[in-house]
Amino acid sequence: MVIPTFNEKENIGVLIKKIQDVFEEGEIEGSILVIDDNSPDGTAEVAGEMASRYGNIRILKRKGKLGLGSAYREGFGIALRTMKADIVFEMDADLSHDPSFIPEFIRRLNEGCEMVVGSRHIPGGKIQGWSLYRHLVSSTANTLAKTALDLGVSDVTTGFRAYRAETLRKIKYETIDSESYGFQIETLFRCARRGLRVGEVPITFKDRRAGASKLGKKEILQFIGNVCRLFVTRLTGW
């Protein structure tokens, strides 16, 4: 489980405990990798306390707020090369993603999917606690990306995902230079271009109750720019 964090002190301990419970109940041999971008609120310290309680937690403290895309690139590299993971998950640290869905992701991968996304927009999926503005932003982003890039997935911006280790190698994750939420789009885009099988699992997405959202105007503009760049790539075949 690769979990990027920035100022998630109030959430990270609760999330780790929930993941550990799922691992234990499902007899899953799993590990947790927290990638912290020098959170001033002490997120890394809380994660460190959890690591002292459990033996399957690793924490990478970075020198500053380097971004979501770079956190996943670095985290995936550690998961594959150092931790020798067969399956790599990504999820948010703000408790919006429920770890209870983890076994269903694994089941779909075992059925032959090469990547699985947690979808809020298929039967059984739902969103709780969002404002009309957040619904509008998410719907617009999904429609724009799906139309421009033909990704064949209902929820292209979801950050709850699981990959086979070989899938990450096939899409050359380390060369993805998109940042923020554009990273999620480009991983799907590369899977689609290589004809990889992507499955969807319905999830219930709960808006954060503690901490501040990381979605701002900068992230929205980066997302639009990434979609436009990938659209040109799709048209030209570059």
Please give a quick description of this structure.
By secondary structure, the chain is an alpha/beta fold. It has 8 helices and 9 strands.
Describe the overall structure:
By secondary structure, this protein is an alpha/beta fold. It has helices spanning 9-26, 43-53, 68-82, 102-110, 132-149, 165-170, 182-193, 217-236; strands spanning 2-5, 32-36, 57-61, 87-90, 115-119, 126-128, 161-164, 198-202, 204-206. α1 packs parallel to α2, α5 runs parallel beside α8 (217-236) and α7 (182-193) runs parallel beside α8 (217-236). The protein has one domain (2-236): Spore Coat Polysaccharide Biosynthesis Protein SpsA, Chain A, CATH 3.90.550.10. The longest helix is centred in the C-terminal third of the chain and has 20 residues, at 217-236. The strands form three sheets. Strands 4-7-5-8 form a four-stranded mixed β-sheet, sandwiched between helices. Strands 1-2-3 form a three-stranded parallel β-sheet, with helices on both faces. A two-stranded parallel ribbon has the order 6-9. β1, α1 (9-26) and β2 (32-36) form a beta-alpha-beta unit. The model has no long low-confidence stretch (mean pLDDT 91).
